[in-house]
Predict the structure of dolichyl-phosphate-mannose--protein mannosyltransferase.
Amino acid sequence: QIFNQHNAEAPNLEQTFHRMAQTEPNLDHDVSWFLLPSYWAKMVVALISFLCFANSYDGDFVFDDSEAIINNKDLRAETPLGDLWYHDFWGSKLSSNTSHKSYRPLTVLTFRMNYLFAGGFYPVGFHVINIILHCTISVLMIDVFSILLGGLQFSNKGRRLNLAPKSSLLAALLFAVHPVHTECVAGIVGRADLLCALFFLLSFLGYCKAFRENKEGHTFSVFWVLVSVVLGAIAMLCKEQGITILGLNAVFDALVINKINLLELIRKLLYKDKSLENAGLLLRKGLLFRIALLMCGGASILYIRWRIMGTGPPAFTEVDNPASFADSLFVRAINYNYYYSLNAWLLLCPWWLCFDWSMGCIPLIKSVSDWRIIALAALWFCLIGLICQALCSEDSHKRRILTLGLGFLIIPFLPASNLFFRVGFVVAERVIYLPSIGYCILFTYGFSLLSKQAKKKKILAVAVLGILLINVMRCALRSSQWRSEEQLFRSALSVCPLNAKVHYNVGKNLADKGNQSAAIKYYREAVRLNPKYVHAMNNLGNILKERNELHEAEELLSLAVQIQPDFAAAWMNLGIVQNSLRRFEEAEQSYWTAIKHRKKYPDCYYNLGRLYADLNRHIDALNAWRNATVLKPEHSLAWNNMIILLDNTGNLAQAEAVGREALELIPNDHSLMFSLANVLGKSQKYKESEALFLKAIKANPNAASYHGNLAVLYHRWGNLDLAKKHYEVSLKLDPMAPGTKENYNLLRRKLEQLQKKGG
């Protein structure tokens, strides 16, 4: 009940609470659960939500974190802050055809702040912020659930009353410990969902504040409605789902503030009932005005986002979302509904969790004889039953809770439903973070109905406690799996054994650790499961190239570029293989094709330079390496090769100039120090050469060649004792070092001759 007039004398809080509680049935009356003071309830929820995910605090950057954080130039100080508003979540320009169009500048801004405050890419700070955000959201859920389950009531002093303290505590605990939230909390890129949820809830609570009676006795505040719209816009700038809060605020206004019976309203509209004159009452209460504000705000936000996005929707591939590429409308509809049922199942039984559900993890349903149709039938049987109860029940309290539960379950999920536009995933646990609010409402209401009927309510309460405890343990286990890529990827093998991407990621992780034999096995399985998986072909081809299995590597890479002609990395790797097979013309053509598809490709220019060097086309080689360093000034290998080539061709002055230029850009690169020291030694600049050799050795003391070449310098310089010392160190580090043993023997003979003369 909303107060419509200002009372001269305010009754005490207990009387007010009692009077308001009588306006409708109290859900808490039937719930057998703990009753805690508000402060303690929030402390308990915060503590339990922290315990669920605390073990993820020192995890690594995993899966999408690499692209969204480590490789995202928008996090670095040299990128202007203004660029964040024109780039997508991954750091690409929104106007680019390859952009995913995921516009989340405020989330990227928090990543940037993490990076700057930590002084680099240290994951602990990123993880701690995610955990704090989830704890904060879980605590806010108590206030949100108290409104959704108990109604919006205020005391005469304008204080909001919690008419369902037990139910709101249970629902908040269910939300806090739900294992499906692990991806959002333990995966750093899940920050987008967490920030979106935070401002989503603040928008809702702000909208509720609009109905707190002010001093003038108005029934609602336009200011707080506008604040709610602004917070909804901020939520959308964290993640796209945030915009849906404006629709939910409108639903809440109609059902809770104005207590509209939807079925009755529909009947009156259909039969043109004269009692529709009550619409004037809605106008007087401001419902239509508030909905107009929400609609205008939402339309303005969407228009601005569309203008910034610049182009059409993102271009996804069939492996990302195979159902959306099906020719048959029937197949698309059946599979979309099957995906919905899987999302519902993850809420009900979050046991089988996977970091990625694409690439064959969920085979398409192509006929009605597929047994998985049962899941669709079960989903719609439950949904239709709930919708009927929400519309047709004579109990207004039941109608309100069920409608709000379904609203919070369905409306935030709509952007991920494929209904309005194609999405780039099949199932994604992160997108269920907000819809789980609706699940918690329905679960809590179902528990209250069971408690009402049950004779032994304590057994029912113990059962729910057991569910919460199991979820806490599942969260802790799943959080530990998100701590490293190896654990995360291997955990998916049992859940999605048909997912080619899972095998690819396991293989990539093994390859990064140097276990090439095991990596080959997983890459081959990825290609077997998805014969068009060009990235798996490329990585497998690379490993085979390094193992000198050149012909199979060439076959794989040729197939990859045939399937995806603009795959620049595969063209470059094909060129490397062709170069190794001494098919130089084909290799040159492959390199130029790679550069054609990726204009700024320093590694490809570097490899092209190596090809030209092998063909003694020195000018072309130097030009290619120079292009590599222009595109990537810290490309140490290209700088080194320029210095070495100029050195070998007798252009010592030019080699020295290039070496000094390189060291100005990369002052701590010991390999550049070594190369320049060699040039300076040949130019008889012994003192400067010695200083660079010693600096290089300090940075890398176990490099035999560094000691060997410094010994040669001392040998030329006449410092024979120091030469002998460094020859011996070099031979100790590498007894087979080329030329070192011969030079050492020459030095020893010279020392023996000097000793004889001295004797």
Notes: Residues 35-309 form one domain.
